[in-house]
Amino acid sequence: MEFRSATHGDIAEIVAFTTDTFEWGDYVPEMIGEWIDDPSGTVMVAVDDSGITGLARVVLLSNTEAWSHAARIRPDRRGEGIAGQLADVLLDWARAHGALIVRLLVEDDNHASIRQVAKAGLRRVATAVRAGRPIGDATPNPDGNGGRRTSSGFTARPVKAADAPMLAAAWSSSRCGRPLRGLIANGWRFHILTEPDLIDAAQRGGLWEIGSSWAVTRQDEATFGVSLLDTDPAEAFDAIRSLIDVANERGAEAFSMWLADIDWLTQAARRAGCDVSPSGIWVYSL
Ligand SMILES: CC(C)(COP(=O)(O)OP(=O)(O)OC[C@H]1O[C@@H](n2cnc3c(N)ncnc32)[C@H](O)[C@@H]1OP(=O)(O)O)[C@@H](O)C(=O)NCCC(=O)NCCS
């Protein structure tokens, strides 16, 4: 088996075996061209006489943190350990580019992937819970726009960048930040929260205080995402409801949050109408 960086000439072959990876399809066919051109990461392919047997990508999120994702082995070649060999090549790439740590995310129901990453020497260090629901016009639920709804007991207020240092310092030892090891989500990727993350969030209107809780949010087109929520059992439900209020006001159609895996927090998310699903965050120290 040969391992090399993917080129545009590989796209058709990759698309041919990644279109229906999951029940919902796959994002690889849409993203692969962009990833190949992105100098902050690399897409490695495994190739033998039968052609491309698999791919995986690693990308630098900071000077020292890398993120690995999009491991896809051609269905007829699964179970041969190819993903493990690809992981070794990606770890070498990350090391050579200055990373000290590589992280990745695996959904708890992906047993094949969990076995593979554990065999590759990664350690599971945290659980992140994805909680989401449709909102606004996208839902028949009366909680949505235009229907009868009870307002949350709190209002989310924007926080100024001046408060970023204090919040950033508090996160890793906070009730919700500790189990998440001080990580924050950016889309589906996690990195250690830094002050610049919060200054940036404040400057684009995505840093909020809600009672004594606080949150970082990001809106991408129709999805309103909560990248971080620090709250407590007394406030969790109202904090989530007030974030849903903000999402509704901004015309979002979908609401999604990354939460620490704490019973009272996931229960509050369910009470607010969210479906929840846990994923493991795995780490390899280089
Ligand atoms: C997850 C995946 C990348 C693993 O790659 P792989 O090269 O098959 O990994 P391995 O050969 O180490 O097998 C891993 C586990 O898959 C399972 N497995 C074995 N044969 C399999 C097959 N034919 N089909 C599916 N899974 C199989 C086994 O549990 C195996 O563990 P074991 O060898 O300890 O019993 C691959 O299954 C895949 O492409 N899955 C679909 C995409 C996906 O889920 N990607 C990861 C997203 S986080």
Q: For the record, what is the CATH homologous superfamily label of the largest domain? A: Gcn5-related N-acetyltransferase (GNAT)
Known CATH architecture of the largest domain: 3-Layer(aba) Sandwich
Tally of helical runs: 8
CATH topology of the largest domain: Aminopeptidase
Order of helices and strands: EHHEEEHEHEEHEEHEEEHEHE
**How many structural domains can be distinguished in the coordinates?**
2
Oligomeric grouping of the chains: single chain
Q: What is the helix content?
A: 25-40%
The biggest sheet amounts to: 12 strands, mixed
CATH class term of the largest domain: Alpha Beta
Query: Strands of the largest sheet, in order across it?
Result: 1-2-3-4-5-14-6-13-12-11-10-7
Cα gyration radius (Å): 20 Å
In short:
This protein is α+β, with helices and mostly antiparallel strands and 286 residues long. It has helices at residues 11-18, 28-37, 82-96, 111-119, 164-171, 195-203, 236-249, 263-271, and strands spanning 2-5, 41-48, 51-60, 65-73, 101-107, 123-134, 157-158, 183-186, 189-192, 207-210, 213-220, 223-230, 254-260, 275-285.
Layout of helices and strands:
Elements: E1 2-5, H1 11-18, H2 28-37, E2 41-48, E3 51-60, E4 65-73, H3 82-96, E5 101-107, H4 111-119, E6 123-134, E7 157-158, H5 164-171, E8 183-186, E9 189-192, H6 195-203, E10 207-210, E11 213-220, E12 223-230, H7 236-249, E13 254-260, H8 263-271, E14 275-285
Helix pairs in contact: 1-2, 5-6
The site of coenzyme A has 18 residues, from strand 4, helix 3 and helix 4.
